[in-house]
Design a protein that fits this description.
By secondary structure, the protein is an alpha/beta fold. Helix content is 33%, strand content 23%. It has an 8-stranded mixed beta sheet, sandwiched between helices. Helix 13 links the parallel strand 17 and strand 18. The chain binds flavin mononucleotide.
Length: 400
């Protein structure tokens, strides 16, 4: 089953250069299973033709309110609709939408639409920064429209583009569409903090102690929580897994910095998921200059324990905050996980083995065992980390 199977999406395209990207967007939405109707404004038709969209969606494309089209297209197209996307949304369209105009097909569809609306503005960076445009965007947000704010990046005119204005990539818009289409559970509107990746404990200015964590499990959890409508913040060590747009990220280096960043977040958090692999030990002494090779091994390395993030931030937590921990072990997996659940006062612990192929650090799949506070143990099969993330969040929603 594809993620948007059975969903009806109306894609409105307005007249900007970024309309060329809307063809990819139409294709991605169709490939995800949605049936996509496209409406082009008169200006958009000057930038990109109807044939491309007809071929990509397999459906007729609509362009006029009064004239060649069906007399009541503006009502027919939005009846039973799951989502209306306007991408790109020009400055002029934002103004019309903010003021309730209905003088062309797309604006009229918007007024008649009861489904969620997603808009991806795109324009010159000075136009986007203009107070009138910003006032229209604020009015649209107030009306409940979801904005995928433009990014900083190259604009059509090569000498422009120091500020935001460039339409977000179609993949990002699809992710936001997925968030709006997702059935709303208990995580919607909740604040979720996820820790991800390893930490690094410096030994000297060029060396550190760390581990093999890549942050993939944490990022999968953050992305799944965001899709379910949560406000998500990720506190992460140096890692390779990219953090999806929409998620607030706080990068840190050491376990002590991770503890400080978590402390700053937990007062507002409904859920804390500790998916990071913070270093448990740090060199007792950090050398100020690079330790040189002197023909013999240096003195044995003395280590101190790093702060325990859950324990050291417990007093700062919002009362009733739900805490989920991870236990990555090489031996006595369940025994260690149960002990950690108790010692740290967790509501749920996710145990996984560091030695199993296809599970743990770096892989795209994971096999985990969930241990609940009441002693229930659930063994999940080896599956993609995104599926594991959803399984964990299903349990979290049941506990909320
Ligand atoms: C070459 C060219 C590029 C344009 N690019 C944009 C743009 O990226 N964003 C924007 O808001 N307007 C842009 N405009 C202006 C719009 O096309 C114009 O405001 C038009 O009336 C918008 O109509 P619509 O909102 O009905 O599609 C551009 C105009 C031209 C001639």
């Amino acid at each position: 089953m594809r993620p948007f199977d059975g969903r009806r999406i109306l894609l409105g395209v307005t007249g900007g250069i970024a309309s060329y990207k809307s063809a990819s967007l139409a294709r991605l939405l169709t490939q995800a299973g949605a049936s996509v109707d496209v409406v082009l404004t008169r200006s958009a038709k000057e930038f990109i033709g109807t044939i491309t969209f007809e071929a990509l969606t397999g459906r007729p494309v609509h362009t006029v309110l009064i004239g060649d089209g069906h007399a009541l297209d503006h009502l027919r197209l939005v009846r039973g609709l799951d989502l209306l996307i306007v991408a790109p949304a020009t400055a002029d369209f934002l103004a019309r939408a903010a003021h309730g105009h209905a003088d062309e097909l797309l604006s009229a569809c918007l007024l008649a639409c009861e489904a969620p609306v997603l808009m991806a503005p795109a324009m010159n960076d000075r136009m986007w920064a203009n107070p009138q445009v910003q006032a229209n965007v604020a009015a649209l947000r107030k009306l409940g429209r979801t904005m995928v704010d433009p990014a900083v990046g190259p604009l059509a005119s090569p000498d422009e583009g120091a500020g935001a204005g460039r339409m977000q990539e179609p993949e990002t818009i699809v992710a936001h569409a997925g968030r709006l289409l997702e059935p709303k559970g208990k995580l919607a509107g909740r604040r979720v903090i996820v820790t991800a990746g390893p930490t690094r404990e410096p030994l000297d200015p060029v060396r550190f102690l760390s581990n093999h964590s890549t942050g993939k499990m944490g990022v999968a959890l953050a992305a799944a929580a965001w899709r379910r409508g949560a406000e998500v913040a990720v506190v992460h060590g140096p890692m390779t897994a990219p953090i999806p747009d929409g998620i607030c990220a706080t990068p840190v280096e050491t376990t002590a910095e991770m503890a400080d960043a978590v402390r700053a977040e937990v007062a507002q958090a409904d859920v804390l998921v500790m998916a990071a692999a913070p270093a448990d030990f740090r060199p007792a002494k950090v050398e100020g200059a690079k330790i040189k090779k002197r023909g013999k091994a240096p003195a044995p390395l003395a280590l101190d324990e790093t702060p325990d993030i859950l324990r050291s931030t417990r007093d700062a937590r919002r009362p009733g905050m739900l805490a989920v921990g991870f236990a990555l072990e090489t031996d006595h997996l369940l025994e260690h996980a149960k002990a950690k659940l108790e010692a740290k006062g967790l509501d749920l612990i996710v145990a996984n083995s560091a030695s199993e192929a296809g599970a743990g650090f770096g892989s795209d799949t994971n096999r985990v065992t969930l241990v609940h506070r009441d002693g229930t143990v659930e063994e999940l099969p080896l599956q993609p980390k995104s599926v594991v993330a959803d399984a964990i969040l299903d349990r979290v929603e049941a506990l909320l």
